[in-house]
Amino acid sequence: MPGTRTRPLGQVTRGKTAPNRLRKTDAFLALAFPEFVRHLPGVYIDLGYGAYPITSVETLTRLRRLNPELRVIGVEIDPARVAAAEASRQPGLEFRLGGFNLPLVNHETAAVVRAFNVLRQYSEAEVAAALSALAIGMCPGALLIEGTSNPTGHLMTFNLYQKSNEQLIPLGLVLAPGLRHDFAPRQLQPVLPKNHIHHAAPDGPIDRFFALWTRAWSAARAHGSDMRQVFSASAGRLREAGYAIDPRPALLRRGFLWLKPPWPAPHPPP
Ligand SMILES: C[S@@+](CC[C@H](N)C(=O)[O-])C[C@H]1O[C@@H](n2cnc3c(N)ncnc32)[C@H](O)[C@@H]1O
Known about the structure:
The chain has helices at 23-32, 34-38, 54-63, 79-85, 127-136, 194-197, 205-221, 227-240, 249-253; strands at residues 43-47, 72-76, 93-97, 110-116, 138-149, 155-164, 167-177, 257-259. By secondary structure, the chain is an alpha/beta fold. The site of S-adenosylmethionine (SAM) has 26 residues, from strand 2.
């Protein structure tokens, strides 16, 4: 079986997952990188899919609409979860035992790696080594989506990285709330990725960002109740304050606030 010869890097953690929990990551890729998804130069790795492989199955189904050739490999460090997932194997989808050192075989390479709700269960000191190990299996131009969500996936944030010159280059942080109901920006703070969650001290750059977004949200909310419009208007205020936010209406309308480097500090400083 592939991936059994090298010891998987990492540790077994809680396997909590849910249907549609990672739906937004598929929508984001399809909206932000449609051409890349159509012509993926490698496989899609769903790293740490959890107790059952619903997120891998759903991603195959959704992204196949853009790319019928898509191959998804669900990777888990818990052998029992890999064995249980075998029942969901189908053309374009398989499951392997593995860790941050991806269990790729022969000339396989990863074009997308999604590690969701995985690093949150590690210490912050382990993040850099995990990212370096992941990068080895990724092809030039490959994307890494690493983030955290609440149990339903209605509140989600993720770091985006792209492999270039053998390194993972940060492309920023995406903040993605559900917009069906009213929302307060601070609700996203508890689901910040591991590298940010412990750095939101009062009056620090992250706290100041959320304070500003909260004011922008309230101001926009006073003029309307369509959450998509409120979201876009609040993003406009953040851009005026110097935050490098992706301005594409297609992303903003779907509730994707993509903060590009130098997040969390704005540029130029206010
Ligand atoms: C909380 S679940 C997340 C499930 C799914 N990704 C989601 O967001 O709904 C985390 C899973 O990651 C697995 N895991 C932790 N470290 C891993 C690693 N280094 N490589 C592969 N899987 C890992 C755990 O065994 C666990 O099943």
